[in-house]
Amino acid sequence: MSGANSSSLTPEYFILNGVPGLEEAHIWISLPFCFMYIIAVVGNCGLIYLISHEEALHRPMYYFLALLSFTDVTLCTTTVPNMLCIFWFNLKEIDLNACLAQMFFVHMLTGMESGVLMLMALDRYVAICFPLRYATILTSPVIAKAGLATFLRGVILIFPFTFLTKRLPYCRGNCIPHTYCDHMSVAKVSCGNFKVNAIYGLMVALLIGVFDMCCIAMSYSMILQAVVSLSSTDVRHKAFSTCTSHICAIVITYVPAFFTFFTHRFGAHNIPHHTHIIVANLYLLLPPTMNPIVYGIKTKQIREGVTKFLLGDNVVFTEDT
Question: Which of 145, 33, 154 is nearest to 83 (CA)?
Fold first, then answer.
């Protein structure tokens, strides 16, 4: 096998084939991905800068948003530059350790993104159900500890992926039909039994994705109960409006995530492989691209901050929990 150690059947490098079956369209496929990546980097870095420099945005909701932006821009940066090198320059080789590192960061950061969305749902629950205690419950130390716990959860649960993948024999070859080193895509190249990889991957999905979704659902069910009990229509509308951008972020993140997860394990034979790969890339690119746009449009304080930054106007920030 090319690039393999014959004694251990462990390749020195893998070949990322991009989108098999659509090789002639690689350039055209790369253009929207490149455009989305530029928007993601500019938008998320802009949000982080705005939140860090504008004192009126130094509040729990925006700290969590800054953490989400940092996670998003790091996530798409782990895959898109390498993907564009495949599409533009046909640079398909990736070192074994680089592949394992990319796999770790992709899955760790997607898990962290899910965790941050859960924390943002809890933030909205506290803001709406306990408005008078909001600042005392979500203090800076609490926010820092919550962010650190989310990060450590991802590291601890995802790190075994590297060992489970590296132990597999790769006697069939070292070509991965994908644009980046996804855990199951690498495992399926192996000629060994990767059932442990599939089972552990399912366990991690339950411990991260399903757990976070349950917490988000519980938070919004309690928010709904609290909002419905309010007497004023205007107050109810204001309470709901503070959640719309977060709900959009949840939909943008979880819909392609669940599509990718379930087709990998249960429906791979019924869906064209190139469709699966394109959706898997959208799963990593769509949330980082859309989140700054959604929050910029839906959140008045961010719009005012952008206006103040661009025009230098003396914008008065309105209160909004």
Answer: 33
**Site of tokens 């079956």:** 21
- Is 63 within 8 Å of 50 (Cβ atoms)? no
User: Which pLDDT value is given to residue 52?
Assistant: 93
3-class secondary-structure state, position 2: coil
Write out the two tokens for 234. 């205007």
- The CA distances from residue 244 to 73, 84, 133, 220, in Å, are 22, 33, 22, 11
Q: Where are the alpha helices (DSSP H) in the chain?
A: 26-53, 60-77, 80-89, 96-129, 134-137, 140-166, 183-187, 195-205, 211-228, 233-262, 273-298, 300-311
Strands 13-16 and 175-176: parallel
User: What amino acid is encoded at 207 in this protein?
Assistant: L
DSSP secondary structure string, 191-258?
SS--HHHHHHHHHHHIIIIIHHHHHHHHHHHHHHHHHHT-S-HHHHHHHHHHHHHHHHHHHHHHHHHH
Do 315 and 57 contact (CB within 8 A), yes or no? no
CA-to-CA distance for 303 and 295, rounded, in angstroms? Answer: 9
**pLDDT under 70: residue ranges of the chain:** 1-8, 263-270, 312-321
Question: Tell me: the pLDDT tens digits for 252-285?
Answer: 998 888 777 776 666 556 678 888 889 889 989 9
Q: Supply 28's token pair.
A: 């055209």
First-last CA distance in the chain: 60
| Nearest 10 degrees: Cα torsion 47, 147, 227, 248 | 50
